[in-house]
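JOB MANIFEST
job_type = single_chain_structure
chain_count = 1
residues = 289
[input]
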Amino acid sequence: MPSENSWKTKREQMNRDGYCLLESVVSMDLIDGLREGSDRLLDEFSPVEQHLVRYQGSNLSIDFQHPSFAELVTSPALLGSLDRLGWPTPRYMSGYILSKPPGGPPLYWHQDWGGWDDPVSFEVEPMQIFVMVYLTDTVVHNGCLRVIPGTHRYRIDLHDELTEAHSPAAHDANLSDTSPMFRRRPDEVDVPIKVGDLVIGDARVLHAAHANQSDRRRTCMTLWYFTRWDECSEPLQSLYRWRNDLPDDMDGEQKSRVESILTRYDGSMEPLPFNRHLPAGWGSGQVEG
């Protein structure tokens, strides 16, 4: 794990680039459990319309179908890492199993923040982050992450060329090296990762993934946390509140741990409209702060 000085560097990288990599956080015993649980679901996965997930590979919701999923979401090592980055009380919103099959195509450029109507979008500090846990060593050849550093704070030409992430138009996007959705850029960075590492990213940062050119499945567990849930406006909390029921047969101790970190909202405020479109005044210069 990083030293005290290294944690400071990682925090600075998050604010500057919109992502960071933490090495050797998840134990191999837990990785084995995640492989078992995710492979079981993926082996049964048969989407009605395959084109809806062709660029993601899969988009299976983590609903705690396997004990390892709760272990990951509430992992002391993972939550402790977020604490060291400056987020002592993260709240879990959702998670997905994103698995590219052998020969799976790349994922398009996109950002995932849907709260652009809230002023928090203009702050340097992220309100929502993704935490990615890859179940195999992942490099360019088998589909590692691609990031454009700084795009959580600065508007670039690509922002205005992209189709909204995960929309029908994105599902139907033309896979082409010349398409803005997929093309290589001189300002992009590849993020290869070892099993057990974490990639943490700001929901606003532009990211994509390479194609899986290997002959093996490449699986990523993507978890979504809010870093400062209690500071969110009520409309934002209402938008991103936890909506699913936990399994009836879930272990009681695990259920208690999960319950304690969910994005709960019990108020009556109308939710903020879900909006992935950057406001006109955002990112023309440095984001406030």
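[summary]
The CA atoms of residues 139 and 192 lie 5 Å apart.
DSSP finds seven helices and ten strands in the chain.
exit_status = 0
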